[in-house]
# Entry
Amino acid sequence: MDFAGALSPDNLRFILEGFYVTLKVAFISIVLSFVLGCLVGTIRYAKIPILAPVLGVIVEILRNLPLLLIIFFTRFALPDIGIKLDVVTSAIVALTLFEGAIISEIVRSGLNSVNKGQIEASRSSGLGYTQTLWHIVMPQGLRRMVPPLVSQFIALLKDTSLAVVISLPELMNHSKIVIAQSYDFVIPVLMVVALLYFSVNYALSLIARRLEAKFV
# Structure
């Protein structure tokens, strides 16, 4: 093991540059997948004719496909139909679609968990369906969704490592390049990678535990 060589200033800077890309891709994907998941989950909960069943089929397809396949599709198949994306955008689109499908189920389950009696009471008091959804169902449902949502965001951060197959310049990709310099760099570099992933994911898991204790 060569810690000094593996973690030289240049190598460490290169690894951290990859970690920055990982965090950037994860953050953008989290925001987009959350918005997409909330929209799709709400539409399916409301059972909007035609739209809800169609989205339901799409969600089931995405949830049951390997994320790796979706990443390959956005990077290599979309250009064949005229949609050309750079490697970062391809990773973000793939993660957003896959995680958005899963989050939509979390949202739909959260909304369905709200007591039907409260919904009926709000409707009988004069509130319309949209008002009931916005003022009664959404606030309660969102509170119950927080822990599983944070857990899914943690999974999303880890899933960014799969984009190494399309040469996304993220943490694992840069680490692989550093390791290729010398076999003695394997353990030191992987230890740093593990520490970086652990630090972020553990912080998120602590947030999830606190939110779960507060809202559930």
Remarks:
- The radius of gyration is 21 Å.
- The chain has a mean pLDDT of 90.
